[in-house]
Design goal:
alpha/beta, binds hypoxanthine, single chain, globular, 5-stranded mixed beta barrel
Length: 276
């Protein structure tokens, strides 16, 4: 998506909301409930923004909501674009670039995953502390976008101070939040058992079909990133049954409520952590 369209989308959102968010929060599958903790949201569906297709996946609402969560001005994104929808990197990354153009310095992402590590059972949460990009696509290929660097460092893709804040809020709330490495695949089919073994050997603790393109683009633009996974199933070959979208949605709802509690307490805490 062109820089003109990104800027125009940011202008529309700013005009509609009347404020600039400091934080951009992306909600994945079945996590729409988190939006309920936002005060007086202004909603702008994706299709009202230039160059944005309407989100197509069941369970992905496809809109921006701007408002305050615990007093903090937030750009909340309900739904996202995935490579498996047939869209290019420009579209997958566009919401991140719009959030940055609006002024968001911090990006918080959520997603659904299949658990590979033994403790990552359905209904649990994982704090992403690293990732392996097995999507075989380079989100930054092409001309360098506004405010981004050509060769961004990826030594610390997930911000250590934000992770520590998330862990301390989780501890206080009695929520288990183990760290883990996210393995990103293009989907949309779920993996074969042999692919899950390969992912484990590659260092992945969980597998999902999103997030990494957004993280890479955010880091290229100097944003701080924090990301949470909701474990909706055991990855293929590790559980008792098959992996299906209905099961993913059902567990997404359960773990989504816990994540909602965590995010509501965390957002004001993130405010106090200065940008690097
Ligand atoms: N694999 C890939 N993506 C997923 C899964 C999975 O098992 N569960 C939820 N998203």
């Amino acid at each position: 998506m062109s820089r003109t369209r990104v800027r125009e989308a940011a202008r529309i959102l700013h005009r509609r909301a009347g404020f600039r968010p400091r934080l951009h929060l992306v909600l994945g599958s079945g996590l729409g409930g988190v939006a309920k903790c936002m005060e007086d949201p202004v909603e702008v569906p994706f299709e009202e923004l230039p160059g944005f297709p309407a989100a197509s996946v069941e369970g992905h609402a496809g809109s921006f909501l701007m408002g305050r969560i615990a007093g903090v001005p937030v750009l909340l994104q309900a739904g996202r674009f995935h490579y498996y929808e047939g869209v290019g990197t420009g579209v997958v990354a566009a919401p991140v670039r719009v959030g940055r153009a609006l002024g968001a310095r911090t990006l918080v992402l959520t997603n659904a995953v299949g658990g590979i590590r033994r403790d990552l059972v359905p209904g649990s949460l994982m704090l992403i502390d690293d990732h392996v990009n097995l999507m075989f696509r380079a989100p930054l290929a092409g001309p360098v976008a506004d405010g981004e660097t050509r060769f961004p460092d990826m030594s610390r893709p997930y911000d250590p101070a934000l992770m520590a804040a998330a862990e301390s809020v989780a501890l206080r709330a009695g929520i288990r939040l183990p760290r883990g490495t996210y393995g990103a695949v293009a989907g949309p089919n779920f993996e074969t058992p042999a692919e899950v073994r390969a992912l484990r050997a590659a260092g992945a603790d969980a597998v999902g079909m999103s997030t990494v393109p957004e993280v890479v683009v955010a880091r290229a633009g100097g944003q701080r990133v924090l990301a949470f996974s909701l474990v909706t199933n055991r990855a293929a070959g590790l559980g008792d049954g098959i992996v299906d979208h209905e099961g993913v949605m059902a567990y997404g709802e359960v773990a989504g409520r816990t994540l909602g509690v965590l995010l509501e307490a965390l957002i004001p805490a993130l405010e106090g952590i200065g940008a690097k």
